[in-house]
Amino acid sequence: MKVTGKIEKILDTATGTSKAGKEWKKTSFLLKTDEEYNNLYCFDVFGGEKVDNFLQWNAKGDIVEVDFNVRTNEWKDKYFTSLEAWKVFKANTNEINEGVEQVANESDLPF
User: Fold this and answer.
1) Residues near 93 by Cβ (< 8 Å), separated by ≥ 6?
2) pLDDT band at 100, cuts 50/70/90?
């Protein structure tokens, strides 16, 4: 799945150790789109290298495109759903600006 929006907030990074004894690292961020409804997403970035890259190249206010998977886990007959971002990159703002410019030009038409 894919969505484009503005990074509203980057949450604190969490670290820990799995049951298998492996170290893990995770951060989450809020992304807001221009949609009228359902326009706020909370994505998780999991893994040390992915978290480091995300934090290095992204900041609050950036317009980004996020490729993500929806993941659901079961624990003691309860289900938890998360949005796992696996690719985050700067959105092509030229395309966004061209779309806005095109709409503005179309509204100038006399009919």
Assistant:
1) 63
2) very low
